[in-house]
Every structure is written in C-alpha cells, then in structure tokens.
Amino acid sequence: MACKRSSVRPRYSPRLNPKSMHFGFFIFRHPKKLPILPDIRLVMKPEITLQTTVRRNTNMVTSKIDDEIVMMSVENGEYYGLDPVGSRIWELIEKPIQIADLITTLMDEFEVERENCERDTFEFLKELNTKRLLEII
Predict the structure, then answer these.
(1) How far apart are CA 125 and CA 90, in angstroms?
(2) Are the C-beta atoms of residues 68 and 111 closer than 8 Å to each other?
(3) Contact 59, 75 (CB under 8 A)
(4) What structural domains does the chain harbor?
C-alpha cells in the first residue's frame, strides 16, 4: 500500500530549537568583538505595526543548513542562528514586505492561530530590530 502524503500544515512553533531563545534566535559572540558605538536607530526606534513594511539587513552573511539559517553580522561582531520558523521569516523578509502580509503567509504555511502568530512574529521582529538585523521602511 502506498503512503499518502498528509495535507496537514506543519505546526507553527517558534521554539523548535531547544538551544534558541526568542523565536529561535540565539547569539554567539565573537571573542574579539569590537565595541559598538551608539546608533541613532537604537535611540529612536519606530513603532512596528501591522502596516509597517520591513526587510532584512542586507549586510548580513548568511548560510542555510538544512531548514535553519546561520548568520553573521560583521557590524555587530556576532553570529546568529534561526530555527525553521525564524528561518522562514528571514526568507520572507528578503524583499520589503508589510507585516500584515507576512503574518498571512505564515498562517497559510503553519498551523497557528492569528493571535499567537502576531504576538510571536512581533516579538521576533522587535528582537531583529534591536540587533539591527531588520530595516523598517
């Protein structure tokens, strides 16, 4: 008997990687990290809403390993790793996208309620923004 492919969408779980924190986001600091000068973007961060358009910082060095992404920020002197859900968001924000459209896409691809998807996505995007890995357009 042939195996049938399940039509069930994967479960939306921002914490798939037990080593990760904050939506599959973990940090490895470079041992010879240079001091980071204050940035005006950190002082005056724009509010992130459903109507906000975002894209990822293009100055990142990234590599995909299986369904996870490992990144390095030369500017911050840090390495980052994303779990499969965080990796999918990173792929979707390669080009400018409105957060409402991003959440709709995630809900189509993962089994998640809108409230949870919005909360976890905003938390993740705010973390990316704090680390200067996100550009708000």
Answers:
(1) 10
(2) no
(3) yes
(4) 25-32+41-136 (3.90.930)
DSSP 3-state percent helix, strand, coil across the chain (nearest 5): 30, 25, 45
Q: Which helix (H) or strand (E) holds 68?
A: strand 68-73
Question: Which one-letter DSSP state was computed for residue 113?
Answer: -
| Six token digits for residue 107 | 């809900």
Model confidence over 83-136: pLDDT tens digits? Answer: 999 999 999 999 999 999 999 999 999 989 999 999 999 999 999 998 889 999
The amino acid present at 76, given as its one-letter code, is N
**100 SS3 class:** helix
Amino acid at 112: V
Of the CA atoms within 13 Å of residue 52, those in its CB half-sphere come to: 17
For residue 63, what are the β-bridge partners? 70
